[in-house]
Design brief:
Layout: H1 9-12, H2 18-26, E1 33-34, H3 46-57, H4 70-84, E2 93-96, H5 99-110, E3 116-121, H6 126-133, E4 137-142, E5 144-146, E6 149-151, H7 154-160, E7 165-171, H8 183-196, E8 199-203, E9 229-234, E10 247-250, H9 256-264, H10 272-284, H11 286-308, E11 313-315, E12 323-328, H12 334-345, E13 347-348, E14 350-351, E15 362-366, H13 371-386
Pfam families: Aminotran_1_2 (PF00155)
EC number: 2.6.1.-
InterPro entries: Aminotransferase_I/II_large, AspAT/PAT-like, NHTrfase_class1_PyrdxlP-BS, PyrdxlP-dep_Trfase, PyrdxlP-dep_Trfase_major
């Protein structure tokens, strides 16, 4: 028996990231424009970094509240009051070591060996992989796509539910499709979860990256305090803090001790000086978010315009998040195409195969970058398409 054969089957089955495989292929190429990862090109604003640096200089390098320092949990309550019009106590927030950590803890609290968890696909691959590592069975339900864009058929979710189903994972606005649920769809999903006694993990990380009027619709608009919903989120996108690895869970206060215990047995908490930066982001970062969203809107329109003019790119203009998920006429192998685009167009994209069922024919482009780079990348892609 080999060493790897002695590991848990769930660990051995954890898939290699289809996105990272392309990144590793092209990351050192001179002049490559990287649009493969889900982040912008702006560094963290100085008002956030300075607050963290001050905490570090002040000696905030010891163990601290595992659930998050009171100042950060209070700042989260203020953030929700401003953006969602809801009043929450600090006891309803748990600070985590990234949004991914928040998702892992939410899964750990609800689903285990043999339990089924339903998610909407194409999807950010980390949820399904994390559920599998926990021993649960991820069950994809594909979004529908038509000339009117992406949509969610709630009847398809209902048909996928079995006696082993424990939770629904709902990411809206969606990575990678940009699909954004309207209030009626959220209500139908919530009604179904209530009827079947299921939990919802609501990933609303892109709520403020919404190109309609104001933020995207949220389960918070329709939920009651006793609904079985865990909200997972991250500082990564709104405040250009992807490398910080700080996130949070919004939960019922009765569950706080459970999640504090799960923090204890995973990371034992987030560094206090980093939490000082997160407080600054929440309390002083609304203007930065507005600037980021408007920048992303202009970038979206630029890329969609250039690729649309080729007559070969097929896509729905995304309603939210900052990705363009598109097909190319005549393209049958998106994974192979992603490597070919690196080699021949010097642009880095993520292959749709990395995002599960429904994504196989697509490529994902992160447009959250400065306009001159995006214009050059879009023209390179247009030239590549025309040569097919």
């Amino acid at each position: 028996m080999t060493l790897i054969e002695t590991l848990r089957p769930e660990a051995r089955a954890a898939p290699e990231s289809g996105i990272v495989a392309v990144i590793n292929h092209g990351r050192l190429r001179e002049g490559l424009i990287p649009l493969w990862a889900g982040e912008g090109d702006l560094p963290t604003p100085s008002f956030i970094s300075d607050a963290a640096a001050k905490g570090l200089a002040d000696g905030e390098t010891f163990y601290t509240w595992q659930k998050g320092i009171p100042a950060l949990r209070q700042a989260l309550a203020r953030y929700y009051a401003r953006h969602f019009g809801k009043t929450f106590a600090e006891e309803e927030f748990i600070v985590t070591g990234s949004g991914m950590h928040a998702i892992q803890l939410a899964i750990d609290a609800i689903a285990g060996s043999g339990d089924e968890v339903i998610y909407l696909s194409p999807a950010w691959p980390n949820f399904a992989a994390a559920a599998g590592v926990a021993g649960a069975v991820p069950v994809p339900v594909t979004l529908d796509q038509s000339g009117n864009g992406w949509s969610c058929d709630v009847d398809k979710i209902a048909a996928a539910i079995t006696p082993r189903t424990k939770l629904l994972f709902i990411n809206t606005p969606s990575n990678p499709t940009g699909w954004t649920a309207d209030k009626e769809t959220l209500q139908a999903i919530l009604n179904l979860a209530r009827q079947k006694g299921l939990w919802i993990i609501a990933d609303e990380i892109y709520s403020l990256f919404h190109y309609g009027h104001g933020r995207a619709p949220s389960f918070l608009d329709i939920a009651t305090p006793e609904d079985r919903i865990l909200f997972v989120n991250s500082f990564s996108k709104n405040w250009a803090m992807t490398g910080w690895r700080v996130g949070w869970i919004k939960t019922h206060p009765a569950l706080q001790q459970v999640f504090e215990n799960l923090i204890q047995y995973s990371t034992s908490g987030v560094a206090q000086f980093m939490q000082r930066g997160a407080v600054a982001a929440l309390d002083g970062g609304d203007g930065f978010i507005v600037e980021q969203v408007e920048r992303a809107r202009a970038a979206r329109d630029l890329v969609c315009g250039i690729l649309g003019e080729t007559g070969k790119a097929r896509f729905t203009v995304p309603q939210g998040a900052f990705y363009l998920f598109f097909r190319v006429d005549g393209l049958t192998d998106a994974r192979k195409a992603a490597f070919d685009i690196v080699d021949n167009a010097n642009v880095g994209l993520a292959p749709g195969t990395a995002f599960g069922p429904g994504g196989e024919a697509f490529l994902r482009l992160c447009f959250h970058r400065r306009l001159d780079q995006l214009e050059e990348a879009a023209h390179r892609l247009a030239k590549w398409m025309k040569a097919l």
